[in-house]
Automatic annotation (TrEMBL):
Transmembrane segment boundaries: none
Protein name as catalogued: Methyltransferase type 11 domain-containing protein
GO molecular function, one term: S-adenosylmethionine-dependent methyltransferase activity
Species for this entry: Sinorhizobium fredii (strain HH103)
Domain of life (superkingdom): Bacteria
Transferase among keywords: yes
């Protein structure tokens, strides 16, 4: 398989039409209970309401940063960082329209080299960033550097090696799962590496919180996901638009017939610096 261009890793190079598809997807996904609940659960575990300075890396449209800023008990400020200027502008617009601009701000930057002061945050989160990174260990080192000694970090992402959509033919399902995963994610096994990476970066794990996103019979959450995959996956250069569209047709046909099976596991790691 050729080296893939995970579209979420190269958001600074994508055209605006593709980024608009991504914005729509991130907003639908972020507001869905399958995603909002695990976020709320790990923020509770981090005791986020008593943190005064929070950093959200790979913030995208600011789903997590805005959720923190909107919490009734939260009185601090949130800084969201993303490598795409276009997504940062979208995040600012959403925050303005939700009247959250006093608590949250967004800047363009690379999580591998933040240019932020050491020990300047009480909490750092990365919400579905790590599976897209060039160098996850470097980003963990940055998270560790900018955290205050009593600070807390959280990494939430899909265990994308577990992402699967069953088609009528099992062997074709396996091949298409592999191609879709390689088209959308740089590090599909990153959450399985996280215990080692966190330890090496000087973190101790406080909690690991799994969430299983499985739909059987009819697709609802996964329907909007695969529809956006149809537009994003071909950017990676593994599948053509025609192959991706045919795959989406098969997946949605299974849903229409009530025989859909789609699933992925997600995990939140909550950790503190040692
Ligand atoms: C899957 S999206 C997640 C966005 C948001 N956290 C959410 O869950 O809705 C991944 C985001 O990480 C950003 N990103 C990827 N690599 C990055 C890097 N090295 N530094 C900062 N942002 C990065 C992308 O631009 C994209 O917005």
């Amino acid at each position: 398989m050729p080296a893939a261009l995970d579209p979420f890793r190269i958001t600074d190079k994508l055209d605006e039409n593709t980024l608009d598809v991504m914005i729509g997807r991130l907003e639908v996904r972020g507001h869905h209970p399958y995603f909002a609940k695990p976020l709320s659960d790990y923020l509770d575990r981090m005791e986020i309401d008593r943190r005064s300075a929070v950093l959200d890396l790979g913030c995208g449209t600011g789903i997590a940063a805005r959720a923190i800023a909107a919490r009734p008990g939260f009185e601090g400020t949130v800084l969201g960082i993303d490598r795409s200027d276009y997504l940062v502008h979208a995040a600012r617009r959403f925050a303005d329209s939700e009247k959250l601009s006093g608590r949250v701000r967004f800047e363009c930057g690379d999580s591998h080299a933040l240019g932020l002061g050491a020990a300047s945050f009480d909490a750092v989160i990365a919400h579905t960033l790590f599976s897209h990174l060039d160098d996850p260990a470097k980003v963990l080192a940055e998270m560790r550097r900018v955290l205050r000694p009593d600070g807390v970090a959280a990494i939430f992402d899909g265990d994308f090696a577990s992402l699967t959509f069953e088609l009528a033919d099992a062997e074709r399902s396996r091949r298409m799962d592999d191609a879709i995963i390689a088209s959308l994610v740089t590090n599909p096994r990153i959450l399985r590496q996280m215990p080692r990476l966190l330890k090496d970066a000087g973190f101790a794990v406080d909690a690991v919180m799994p969430a299983i996103v499985t739909e059987v019979g009819t697709a609802e959450y996964w329907k909007s996901a695969v529809e956006s995959f149809a537009k994003l996956a071909p950017k990676a250069g593994i599948l053509s638009e025609a192959e991706t569209t045919a795959w989406v047709g098969e997946v949605l046909d299974a849903s229409a017939q009530g025989v859909f099976f789609g699933s992925s596991v997600y995990y939140a790691y909550v950790a503190h610096a040692v």
